[in-house]
Design goal:
The chain is an alpha/beta fold. It is built from 10 helices and 8 strands. 33% of the residues are buried.
């Protein structure tokens, strides 16, 4: 280790890697951001609404790989909206991705002391990864001015062929990093997706939220629990 005698601990467990969800975790999914999503997608609202509905239906449904996932996923959106698959693909992989990134660039607000957290983890030899449902991870990180070099792995559940709360993408991270699941901490903002994925994979997890529920804690409390005292 680099000058540290004790490993970072979380809930009594030694932590060798932290896996971050992206949306709502590395930045605040504020009312303003949600409002901009609504306004920017208003003209294509039927597609956006269908996408969200199909996303819920596909959660945990393992289609093995990204190609088969997108074929089924975009096909379901097409069927629900009556629009041809080519139009749906164009909307999802172009307009939706670009709009998403533009909103983050213009209105996304990174969590306070985020870069200090990254430095703290790196100083203690804790490796980092991203695990998020959507693809285009690099575009979203760039829009938030977050250097992707901070992360050893960038995992999209869509590209893996199965949405959260599947444990398979987290198991891939554990196996690739050669770190036991018990020594990996998943940090997200939704228990039903991030928390359940981690539970199934046998990982510790923390849900960033101001709600007074089990597994939840505010961002400031999380920083303290991980050993960063600002």
């Amino acid at each position: 280790m680099t000058g540290k005698e004790e490993m970072i601990k979380f809930n009594g467990c030694d932590i060798k890697a932290v896996v971050f969800d992206l949306d709502g975790t590395l930045y605040d999914l504020s009312f303003k951001v949600k409002l901009m999503f609504f306004l920017k997608n208003f003209k294509k609202w039927s597609l956006f609404k269908a996408h969200r509905e199909v996303q819920s239906e596909f959660r945990g449904k393992d289609l093995v790989n990204g190609k088969d996932f997108y074929d089924a996923y975009l096909g379901a959106i097409s069927k629900r909206t009556g629009k041809d698959v080519v139009s749906v693909e164009d909307w999802y992989f172009n307009r939706f991705e670009d709009t998403f990134s533009d909103i983050l660039r213009d209105h996304g607000k990174k969590r306070e002391n985020l870069f200090q957290l990254f430095g703290h983890l790196q100083e203690n030899d804790v490796r980092m990864a991203i695990f998020t449902d959507y693809g285009f991870i690099e575009k979203r990180l760039d829009a938030l001015n977050i250097d992707l070099q901070n992360f050893e792995m960038l995992i999209s559940s869509e590209l893996e062929g199965v949405l959260k709360p599947s444990a398979r993408p987290l198991q891939k991270i554990s196996e690739t990093m050669n770190i036991p699941a018990r020594n990996i901490l998943m940090v997200g903002d939704n228990y039903n997706t991030d928390g359940k994925s981690a539970e199934k994979a046998g990982m510790n997890f923390c849900i960033i939220s101001d709600e007074k529920e089990e597994y939840h804690c505010s961002w400031d409390v999380f920083l303290k629990k991980i050993g960063l005292n600002i």
